[in-house]
Design goal:
Helices cover about 65% and strands about 5% of the residues. The chain has about 500 residues and is mainly α. A three-stranded mixed beta sheet has the order 1-3-2. The longest helix is centred in the middle third of the chain and has 25 residues. The protein is globular and about 70 Å long. Its cofactor is Zn(2+).
């Protein structure tokens, strides 16, 4: 299901700020017998004086909302499902994990990745283009996960609190400003961090080496090739060597020669394994290039030809990529002719079902999409992609009551997914259910940090509901929750 990408003026560029944002904090215990090399050192616990474990999820929630409201996040259900499955496969083999992780993709052609409070990891879409295989992509995620589990950001904040008049609220305010507006953010950092940036860079280099070391262990335990990490780092170094401007990733993740050689030496001491990229990785890569690629880096015929000469998974990805090319060119018949035989061989494949649904909807054939999705039991499936496609098809087919029932279940199970609330808003609005429309819009506003607007919309929904009704009580209770959230967030807004 291709939903409208919400872009902003923000070019998600993190330079000096990235040295802070990249050095991250979090974790909930998963492994009963942790490798001592992975366990958090005692100095990590001292960071509780500045930032407690309980504070991290709250701060992460605040920053995620700001990110949704200001950055060009890719709200693609297929890609979000894939990156979170891959990320959480790695998290399951990490230690010192104290709470759930969430993974996001920003539509940005600059190579970078970063993490921040509460186990939130962000990849730039260019990472998919740059990664030759799934192990290399996993190596980036493992590195960022390790920044989090080792509480690097909390430790950096504690260090700054001891060695300068800088307060952690000031640092966080500058980071937030840089997320929303790179130029203003850099100005904020220059003023706030006067004279301390070199110390942060040095501290970050130590963090990078530790994240490499821990990340390699996580990568190996998760069944990926450990050599993929130094191989990916070598690609970054090579690109920097032959380019007038280094990749953004090297600004937020410094790469001295010692770091690269250390990563390679450690990987060489681990058993080398041959790992084939999953079908989902290959589909995700061609989807990123085909749906979100730039003029400079599109999904090319040469790349698809290369895939077509590979193994069966790569051949499937080549066919899927060609179908995307036809779809984007509005050559729907050609796209359908590729996809339908593939779906016949794999009736439950969500990548094929999703693209065929988009084709049907663009051709005003919603009943055909509904029939296909009902055959796949999409309405009762636990798969988020299928549920969203079903709801979208119901709306386009004017089966609005069915759409609303499905979306109320979906938003209850996935309250942090903007896609569900956007579709629910469409569904109830077309039925003329004004209070429900306002309530759904309010949730969308809350997810992007616009709590004042959210409360205002819920107040209007309450006023338009029957006095004493269950709906009115529900809206009033939600208003109370959001006001409490505003109170918790106030300390970060002041920063």
């Amino acid at each position: 299901m291709r939903l409208k990408l919400k872009l902003s003026k923000m070019a998600t560029r993190l330079t000096a700020c990235g040295l802070l944002v990249s050095t991250l904090a979090t974790g909930f215990p998963l492994a009963a017998h942790a490798d001592p090399a992975d366990q958090l050192p005692d100095m990590g616990t001292t960071a509780g004086g500045t930032l407690t474990i309980d504070q991290e999820p709250q701060m992460g929630d605040f920053y995620v909302r700001q990110l949704r409201g200001s950055a060009p996040l890719i709200s693609d259900p297929l890609l979000n499902e894939y990156i979170n499955q891959l990320g959480n496969r790695l998290v399951a083999h990490a230690y010192s994990v104290r709470f759930p992780f969430h993974f996001f993709i920003v539509n940005n052609d600059q190579l970078n990745a970063f993490a921040f409070f509460g186990g939130n990891v962000v990849l730039h879409s260019a990472i998919f283009r740059f990664a030759d295989n799934e192990s290399q992509l996993a190596s980036v995620l493992a590195h960022e996960i390790s920044h989090v589990t080792q509480r690097h950001l909390a430790r950096a904040m504690e260090d700054q609190k001891r060695n300068s008049p800088l307060t952690w609220v000031g640092v966080l305010g500058s980071i937030l400003l840089a997320m929303a507006s790179p130029e203003a953010g850099m100005a904020g950092l220059t003023g706030t961090l006067a004279g301390t940036q070199q110390g942060l860079i040095s501290f970050s280099r130590g963090n990078e080496e530790e994240a490499d070391r821990i990340g390699l262990q996580v990568l190996q335990r998760s069944g990926f090739d450990p050599e993929s990490m130094p191989n990916f780092l070598q690609k970054l170094a090579d690109q920097s060597r032959y380019s007038s401007k280094p990749p953004e990733m090297l600004l937020t993740h410094p790469l001295p020669d010692s770091r690269l050689s250390d990563a390679r030496n450690r990987a060489n001491q681990m058993p080398h394994i041959v790992v084939q990229s999953s079908q989902d990785f290959l589909f995700a890569k061609v989807r990123i290039l085909g749906m979100y690629g730039t003029e400079d880096h599109p999904l090319t015929d040469d790349y698809l030809k290369q895939l077509g000469n590979g193994n069966i998974r790569e051949q499937n990805a080549a066919q899927y990529g060609r179908a995307i090319q036809f779809y984007r060119a509005k050559s729907y018949t050609q796209a359908r002719n590729i996809l339908e035989p593939m779906l016949a061989r794999e009736p439950g494949n969500v990548w094929y079902l999703d693209l065929l649904t988009d084709i049907d909807i663009d051709q005003k054939r919603a009943p055909q999409a509904i029939a296909r999705l009902e055959k796949a039991n999409a309405a009762t499936s636990k798969d988020a992609v299928l549920q969203l496609n079903m709801a979208n098809a119901y709306i386009e087919g004017n089966e609005l009551a069915k759409a609303s029932r499905l979306l109320y279940r979906y938003t209850y199970a996935h309250p942090d997914d903007p896609n569900g609330w956007d579709l629910l808003t469409q569904s109830v609005a077309q039925q003329g259910l004004r209070p429900q429309e306002l309530a759904a819009r309010a949730e969308s506003m809350a997810l992007v940090g616009r709590l004042d607007q959210s409360i205002s919309m819920l107040s209007s929904a309450s006023d338009q509901s029957k006095l004493g009704s269950l709906d009115q009580a529900r809206y009033d209770a939600r208003i109370d929750q959001l006001r409490q959230l505003q109170k918790r967030f106030q300390q970060y807004v002041k920063g």
